[in-house]
Each structure stands twice: as structure tokens, then as C-alpha cells.
Write a structure and sequence with these properties.
alpha/beta; TIM Barrel; 19% strand; 2 domains; 283 residues; six-stranded parallel sheet
Amino acid sequence: MPNLDTTKDLFADLVDTVARALAEDCGTGDITAELIDIETTANAAVITREKAVICGRPWVTEVFRQLDPSLTLDWQVDDGDLVAPNQLLFTVTGHARQILTGERTALNFLQTLSGTATRTRHYSDLIKHTQTRLLDTRKTLPGLRLAQKYAVACGGGLNHRIGLFDAFLIKENHIQACGSITRAIQRARQLHPGCKVEVEVENMPEFQEALIAQPDWIMLDNFTLTDMRDAVSQVPATIKLEASGGIESETDLVAIAETGVHFVSIGALTKHCQAVDLSMRFR
């Protein structure tokens, strides 16, 4: 289920995402930019004020392309690069009005996605001594699902399912509505035999039932470390184990990874995103 290829859909979606963001900010026009003569040109530099993993180049480039294709961007970093405070990220040269109109939208994308990538890299580094990998979730900012999943990948994490359409994740309410874990898994196989099937379990008896029903993945929801280790010792090579919930601290994350589960899914990668501090200055 990880390593889903989002590239094709991502860049098809990018143009519309940027257009909506610009429309939201510009409305009927940037009245402050009208203070500047239409022929005035400028060169602006964007730096980071803090250490970060950069992500968002395609969105920034598309912002300025939509506003004025004649603007020239000169990037000094790539997505996924670790940068230091006060490091130059890129310059943009051309009509001053369009640079200023695009500044906030461009930086919003770059700050937000870099924040996601930076948090992901931090968490990934904490567990790099284990075989466990970080997964994202569907707890993303509305309208930025693919963008944030791209940012997670830039930070060293893995993409889980993209949405409700590309893989099964059978949770407590699905199980109750279907009647049992076994029945839900069987129904999933019948409906979409080509899709991965994951089921969430909340205790060891449910885990045992899931093992017999043979999904592709089992999510251990809020399991104790002891029960996680027990599950790892029993799971066959054909089934992957994902731990979720109960991660209140970085210490918890490390302890969970050290149980030997294949994956840990963390909604905080995308929903608790803290924007990276960036600055644009005319030179």
C-alpha cells in the first residue's frame, strides 16, 4: 500500500489548486500592487529563517507562471533538501506588480508543504535505526491532499492510500455494520479483488480473527507495546502490520517502532503542520 504513485495525479491537480488559491487571494484584483508603475521591474529573494526540509517548488513556480509567464525564477534548492537558517531558496525577477501579487500565495504553499516535509523528516530520523517506516493518513488540509502526501514523501515518509477509492481500510464502524471482521474482509475481496485490504483491530481476539481472514494489512489500534510484540511474533510474511494511535510523544514513536511493526501511521504529519518561517525581500 505504501509507495503509491501520486505523481501523475499530483501534477494534473496542481494547476487547478494554484488557480483556486490565487482567485481566493486576488479576487477582483490586487489594489495595493496598483500603487506600483506597471513597467517597474524588480528582483526578489526568498530565504528561510529556520532549518527546514524544503517542499513546494512546483506550486511556487506555477503561481508565478499563472500571474506572469515572463517572470524568471532561479531556484537554489530542490524539494527534499535540508536547508539552514538564512539560506537563499530562490529569486524571482520581472514585473514588480506580479511578484508582489504572487508573494503570499507562493509562500503559503512553500511554508505549509515544507512544514509537512520537515516534521516527516524529524520523525523518520527518530526511527531510522529500525525497519519501521512512517505512513501518512487522510487527515490532510482540505484541497491539499496530494500536495501534502507529496511533502510526506519529500520528508522520507511513505504514502498510505490516497483516498477512499484506492484501498480498503475496514474500521470499527465498518465491522459493526458488516457483522464481523471476517465478513467485511470477504465482502471486500468480492467487490474489488484488485484492491489492498486493511482491517483495524483493537485487541488480540480481533487480531486473531483477522489473521484467519487473511487481509493484506492489519492495523493495530492503540495496542500496548506487549501486544504489538506478540502480534509481530505471530504475523505471517504475507501480512503487513501497521501501528496507529497512542503516540503521545517522540518516545512513544520510538518504542512502537522498536516492536518490529512494519509501519506507523501518524496523522500529525499533515494535520499538525507548522509552517516554516520564510521571507521575501526585494533587492
